[in-house]
Amino acid sequence: MTHSDFDSIVHLNQNALEGVGPLDNESLSLLVKMADQALVADHDGDIAGFVITLPPGAEYDSSRYRWFEDTLVDDYVYLDRIVVSDEHRRAGVASSLYEEVEGDLPIALEVYETNDVSLAFHESRGFEEIGALTDHGKTNLMLVREPEVDESAA
Ligand SMILES: CC(C)(COP(=O)(O)OP(=O)(O)OC[C@H]1O[C@@H](n2cnc3c(N)ncnc32)[C@H](O)[C@@H]1OP(=O)(O)O)[C@@H](O)C(=O)NCCC(=O)NCCS
């Protein structure tokens, strides 16, 4: 993700407020500075989707991030947001982005309890609910995916 992507990413984000919190260029810029991964999926020169992850210990003013900081004991990756544009959904774009961020660490994220599409997506990738947090009148389900164990490494 580069600075020249920011306008498109803010636009994508603001068209997906059923699933993610609002973003403007300034808050995106701050988020990317804190991020350990900020990736875009390119489709013929257009941005089909993006994902942003944060490491533990970031100065991120988010009650959901704090909840994971207070709850998880071992190292993990916080996935702040994933958005795929309307016209590229259900084509494996989010799955490809997740394959890039899923490594040896658990991944933590929250999903609005009303976001059935995201819940179906995350269930399909093996995420499990470990709690719930209500903030600003919205209930978030707190999900974690443990890394897959490589049986051949034993
Ligand atoms: C959730 C989101 C990122 C999924 O992106 P996507 O690129 O369409 O997802 P994929 O194509 O990789 O889907 C993989 C699997 O997830 C599940 N899934 C995805 N969309 C689904 C839907 N609309 N209904 C049911 N299951 C769905 C399916 O199991 C799917 O596999 P399949 O297509 O082989 O059946 C996308 O819908 C989105 O951007 N939503 C708005 C923003 C948002 O809610 N982000 C998540 C915040 S927590």
UniProtKB/TrEMBL annotation:
Pfam families: Acetyltransf_1 (PF00583). This is GNAT superfamily acetyltransferase. It comes from Aeromicrobium panaciterrae. InterPro entries: Acyl_CoA_acyltransferase, GNAT_dom. Residues 1-150 form the N-acetyltransferase domain. Signal peptide: none annotated. SUPFAM superfamilies: Acyl-CoA N-acyltransferases (Nat).
